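Sync notes, pocket subgroup
Present: LS, DG
LS reminded everyone that the earlier model was apo-only. Rerun requested with beta-D-glucopyranose included. Inputs:
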Amino acid sequence: MIKQTTFLKILVLVGIVQLLISCNSTEPVIKHVSVQGKSVDAIVELMTLEEKVGQMTQAERRYLIDEKDIKDLHLGSLLSGGGSTPETNTPSSWADMLDRFQGLAAESRLGIPLMYGIDAVHGHNNVVGATIFPHNVALGATGNPDLVQEIAHITAKEVRATGINWTFDPCVANSRDERWGRAYESYGEDPTLIAALGSAQVAGYQGASLNSQDAIAACTKHYIGDGAPTWSTGENGKIDRGDARISEAELRALHLPPYQAAIEAGTATIMASYNSWNGTKLHGHKYLMTDLLKGELGFQGFIISDWAGIDEIPGDYKSDIIQSINAGVDMVMVPGDTSKGGSTYREFISKLIQAVNEGSIEMSRIDDAVTRILNVKENMGLLDAPYSNDRALLPTVGSPEHRAVARRAVRESIVMLKNENTLPLSKDLSTVVVAGRGADNVGMQCGGWTISWQGGMGDITSGTTILDGVQASVSPSTQVIHSADGSQASSADAVIVVVGEAPYAEMHGDDEDLALSQEDMAVLNTVIETGKPMVVVLLSGRPMIVTELLKDTDAFLAAWWLGTEGNGIADVIFGDYAPTGKLSVTWPTDMSQIPINVGDDDYSPLFPVGYGLSY
Ligand code: BGC
Ligand code: BGC
């Protein structure tokens, strides 16, 4: 038995050792201050310059130098860029990752939770197993704001299920040129339609109230004129991120109305655009961001810059920071991909602090930015409760109920461009051949911004292909043959050929030649030679040049990039749904007509805006 005095001596010794260890540790002792119940003004009052600048910084999860920076640098936000996923890409590992990040944010002095942004632009599209909806160009063809709102609400649920609270969507670009690699992110070319669908999407994401359990913050983008640049063959790329050489009257008439509508719908945030307006980069444009957006339109939320967007302003990085913040950017997306010459968020933070200390940026501008950011966080309910650890919504990710709505969206977005007494096909034909590289290809039918930034071909996530849909629709006695190259077409009563564009995103999709690929044309020609009734399904992000091809086809469906629910196509082909989709974009006859838009003086496209047949 140990004597009591010896026991006491041991206790004292242990205490001393512990004290020594804690004195030696490099961890500073943080005195936590609770922000709960405090007004935003009172919180801003409490903050050091470092804490304010941290709130204004958004880092990319992939390029975090040390996860502890979340706490040590008081980061206000993180993002996942396209394809920036946790190692195992399942909904629950996303939620685990988010909880870990929020846990680190909670350890900072003020413990202000993070806003975590992601491009959920057609469903929660970075997550394997999530419901993927048609892209905006397809939703434009539905002309149905209620449906669009429902889609956004479902997306919000799936996003929140993974612990994420902010989507970089809706994109309310007015795409003026089919050659643009982001044309599919646009609802169309009519500002009234874009405004209606964009604001419906904001309402769907943000729910009845921003702080409800299944709401996320919206980010209306890209402000402003992203779809307006002129095609250029210069070294600055072709059209994406280019220069919009248009008058202010045109800018206001064609590109501003969706922002007005999004602000009325309460959009929490707006993203600045990469493009220039008459030679000046938007990210440094004080008149457009501060005077027009925040002043004239009364936008109360905050402006976030696009991915390394401030870097595009002429001058060195410090001057980019000064110019963009003074012009009205409130939070800066600093991906930190140094392999592409980008700066790290650590450099950003130290340069912004320097700029303030030197007087190049007024403290009042910093306080305004931080107040805007914290107001959004407060409206989201984040300051009172960072909603991590709530796994209740996880089972809804990719659920049959959500996929049913996506299937409805597919049906409603299909535009029937031609039908010579061929559609709907009977479900009792004895043999149906399904051909083309898009026939059994979830990746191709989803398009860009799916699982990875650029998207990809093949089985990238779970879904129903067009072939699956056909098989499920026909009668048990019908034989469905999958013949990718069309070589078995001669045995068919009808042939469905699925062709179009392989996925792409942003500048990678800029294209001067919107003809079908040789591979697609070879399959089509094989089928045409058989003389069998042929239905063409075009999977694409935009109109393609099909003037000659149409002459040889019996029926033609523009199905866009429709997402994971390919059975919506079969619903239209076999007559379960009579097509209602109408073009929201002009369909050009040939490349020389581009750019062509409704309202042009000599408007004689292959198909005008509003075109679409039914049974
Ligand atoms: C795109 C934005 C996107 C951001 C984050 C940028 O390259 O222009 O639309 O939200 O990346 O992924
Ligand atoms: C990211 C995208 C981002 C793009 C910008 C990619 O590496 O994944 O999200 O939009 O870079 O260039």
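DG: Residues 399-593 form a domain with the Rossmann fold fold (CATH 3.40.50.1700).
LS: The pocket of beta-D-glucopyranose (ligand 2) is lined by residues 81-84, 307, 453 (CB under 6 Å).
Action: DG to write up.
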